[in-house]
C-alpha cells in the first residue's frame, strides 16, 4: 500500500460522494427474457438495484436473501413500487457465510432456472475488530469472497486503495495466505474489510483473465464501486462510521451496481468507479500484485475443490 494510492482512493471517494451524481440507469436492450439473481436484495443497495432492474424490464428477478421472511416483505414492496407481475420476482434463501447454503442455492438454480444471465453478488459485511470464523475462513473473507454465470457483478470499494498487503504477500517459508488470514493471533482485523475487497479485486481480475483465454467462455465479470452509502454495511463498525454528509443514498450507489450489470466486454476484469472503468491501486497491477493475484486464485480453487469437488474444471 503506497501513500499516493491511499490518498488517491480517499480523495476520490470524498469528491465523488460530494460532487458527482451517477447516471440514472437506462438501456435499449430487451431484458424481458433475462433471469437475474441479486444477493442481499431485501435492503439497501441490493433492494435499490433490484428496483432499477425490474423497472428496466428484467424477466425474472431472484432475490437471494438470508431471511426469507424479510425477503418476502421486500418483494411485496418491490411489486408495489414497480407494478410488476407477481411471477417476476421470487425469494430464495441464501446465506453467503455458509458453504452448504451456497451449494444448496446453486443446485436449486441449476435445477429450476433455464439460464442465469446475471448474478449481482451484493451481500457484504464490514466487520468489527472481533475475529470470528464462518466455515474455514474468517467471516469477512467468506461472505465477501468465496461463493461463484452471462455476467457476474461483484461490488468493490475504493478501500482497496488503502488496504495493507502485508498479510497477502506470498511467502514459501510462511503459511499460505488464507491460513494467515484465518489465524486470530496474526490477523489485523482493523483493516480486514479493506483487505477482503482487495482480495475480491485480485480474484475478479484473475478469473476474467482465465475466462478470456478460454474460447468456451463468454462470461463478463466486473467489480463496480458504489462508494460509501447510507446502508447497513457498517453495522458492526459504528465507532468508525464516516459522517452522513459524506454518504451517498443507497439509490445513488445502486446505480453503480446496475451500470455493472449493463456494462459490456470493456468492463471484463475491471474495477469501475462512478460507472466508468478506472485503474485500481498500484499494488493490484504491479509485479507484487501479480504474484498475490495468482497465489490467491490458486489457493481459492484448492479450497473450493474441497467444498465442491470438481468445481475447478469449471474455472
From TrEMBL:
Q: Which InterPro entries match?
A: NAD(P)-bd_dom_sf, SDR_fam
Alphabetically, the GO molecular function entries are: oxidoreductase activity
Name the domain of life.
Eukaryota
Residues of the signal peptide: none
Write one Pfam family the protein is assigned to. adh_short
Q: Does the keyword Oxidoreductase apply?
A: yes
Q: Record's SUPFAM superfamilies?
A: NAD(P)-binding Rossmann-fold domains
Q: What keywords appear on the UniProt entry?
A: Oxidoreductase
Q: By what name is this protein known? A: Uncharacterized protein
Amino acid at each position: 500500500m503506497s501513500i499516493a494510492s491511499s490518498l488517491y482512493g480517499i480523495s476520490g471517494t470524498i469528491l465523488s460522494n460530494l460532487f458527482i451524481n451517477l447516471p440514472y440507469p437506462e438501456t435499449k436492450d430487451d431484458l424481458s427474457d433475462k433471469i437475474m439473481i441479486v444477493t442481499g436484495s431485501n435492503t439497501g443497495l441490493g433492494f435499490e438495484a433490484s428496483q432499477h432492474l425490474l423497472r428496466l424490464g428484467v424477466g425474472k428477478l431472484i432475490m437471494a436473501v438470508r431471511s426469507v421472511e424479510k425477503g418476502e416483505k421486500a418483494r411485496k414492496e418491490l411489486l408495489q413500487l414497480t407494478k410488476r407481475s407477481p411471477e417476476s420476482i421470487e425469494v430464495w434463501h441464501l446465506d453467503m457465510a455458509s458453504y452448504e447454503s451456497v451449494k444448496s442455492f446453486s443446485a436449486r438454480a441449476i435445477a429450476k432456472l433455464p439460464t442465469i444471465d446475471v448474478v449481482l453478488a451484493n451481500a457484504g459485511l464490514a466487520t468489527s475488530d472481533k475475529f470470528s470464523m464462518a466455515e474455514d475462513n474468517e467471516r469477512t473473507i467468506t461472505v465477501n469472497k468465496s461463493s461463484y454465470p452471462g455476467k457476474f457483478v461483484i461490488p468493490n470499494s475504493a478501500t482497496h486503495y488503502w488496504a495493507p498487503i502485508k498479510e497477502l504477500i506470498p511467502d514459501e517459508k510462511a503459511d499460505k495466505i488464507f491460513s494467515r488470514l484465518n489465524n486470530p493471533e496474526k490477523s489485523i482485523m482493523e483493516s480486514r474489510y479493506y483487505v477482503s475487497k482487495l482480495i475480491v479485486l485480485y480474484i475478479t481480475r484473475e478469473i476474467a483473465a482465465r475466462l478470456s483465454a478460454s474460447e468456451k467462455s463468454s462470461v463478463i465479470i466486473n467489480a463496480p464501486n458504489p462508494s460509501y452509502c447510507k446502508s447497513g454495511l457498517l453495522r458492526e463498525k459504528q465507532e468508525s462510521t464516516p459522517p452522513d454528509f459524506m454518504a451517498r443514498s443507497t439509490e445513488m450507489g445502486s446505480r453503480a451496481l446496475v451500470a455493472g450489470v449493463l456494462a459490456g466486454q470493456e468492463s471484463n476484469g475491471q474495477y469501475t468507479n462512478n460507472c466508468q472503468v478506472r485503474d485500481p491501486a498500484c499494488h493490484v497491477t504491479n509485479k507484487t500484485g501479480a504474484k498475490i493475484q495468482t497465489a490467491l486464485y490458486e489457493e481459492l480453487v484448492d479450497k473450493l475443490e474441497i467444498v465442491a469437488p470438481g468445481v475447478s474444471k469449471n474455472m
